[in-house]
User: Fold this.
Amino acid sequence: MNFWLMLQGFGLGASMIIPIGAQNAYVLNQGIKRHHHLTTATICSVLDTLFISLGIFGGGALLAKNETLLLLVTLGGIAFLTFYGGLSLKSALFPTESHLAQSPSLSGRKAVIIGALAVTVLNPHLYLDTVVILGSIGGQFSGSDRLAFAIGTIAASFTWFFALSIAAAKLAPTLSKPRVKQGIDLAVAIMMFVIALMLAKELLK
Assistant:
């Protein structure tokens, strides 16, 4: 198997996955709260694996041409990002009253899994970056070379999400301090609102 192509896939995969803010913010928050953070990292990594494989092994072009599907995903993404951003903003402004970190109904395993699914599936940037772009690059290879490239990109996803999740959990005592947590929640809220606004602008073009 071509190690160079695997390394190339790792680098390109990391460059596409790391900037996807919604996923990273969610994984970071779950890590800080230590609420099923490894489950969150696993779900995001497995879903990335699915979408990367779909793109590299033939589904990228199909998705890129399906404007209706992309529109639905974009609308769902705007709604979810706005909702999650609102929760983060509430947590930043009213830390003692916020239910985001305290309510069992929002921090149980089922809710965490649903959140991880939503922040991944309802993220149009993920489809465009992992499925369309990585898919178009990986689709240029064939046989074992294509497999090596795919393994590299998938490895980047697992490495990043688990590193982010574990690091956040390790640094939780510091990151959970009221002022620091407020700053993180505010940054997450701004990030979510900005991404939602960017998606809305794309629809109006």
Remarks:
- The mean pLDDT is 81.
- The first helix runs from residue 3 to 17.
- The CA atoms of residues 10 and 51 lie 15 Å apart.
- The two ends are 44 Å apart (CA to CA).
